[in-house]
Amino acid sequence: MEFTTVEMNAMRKELMNHAFSALVRRMPMNKCKAYEYIANYLGVKYSTVTNMVQKGISAKHAAGLSAIAARFKTRMYHYQFAPTDTICQAWLEHDYRCDKGKHPSKHLFKHWERDMNKLHIYEDA
């Protein structure tokens, strides 16, 4: 199945944000302290860490974030913070199967570039 680059990039950003939020949630401190810890560990400003939530994580920080997860005995890996095209494709296919024919307010993935209401999918037997 073919997806547009906009859909792929939106899925990549969504997966990155889920991974980052999960890491912060798993750290045994409040959110502000977790952001400070991440900023100190990565050697970046606090504002850079807060921007990771809105703009996404750069690939150069993915290894550092997975190292932070390992320090707190949380199993999170590089590919979760910087998803590959294959991972994005798999999640898009999953969300596509779940979202086809549903009202846009019920979609799992909110960034479809196609009209999902009028789709008639014929699966290969």
Q: Would you write up a description of this structure?
A:
There is one protein chain. The model has no long low-confidence stretch (mean pLDDT 84). The protein is mainly alpha-helical and 125 residues long. Helices cover 61% and strands 0% of the residues. The chain has a domain of 77 residues. The longest helix is centred in the first third of the chain and has 22 residues.
Descriptive keywords:
125 residues, mainly alpha, 6 helices, 0% strand
Q: Approximately what portion of the residues adopt beta-strand conformation? A: under 5%
Class of secondary structure makeup? mainly alpha
Q: Spans with pLDDT under 50 lasting ≥5 residues? A: none
Distance between the termini: 16 Å
Gyration radius, rounded:
17 Å
Annotation field: number of helices: 6
* Strand elements, count: 0
Profile the largest sheet: none
Average of pLDDT: 84
Order of helices and strands: HHHHHH
Short description:
The chain has six helices and no strands.
Topology:
Elements: H1 5-26, H2 31-42, H3 46-55, H4 59-71, H5 78-81, H6 85-99
Helix pairs in contact: 1-3, 1-6, 2-3
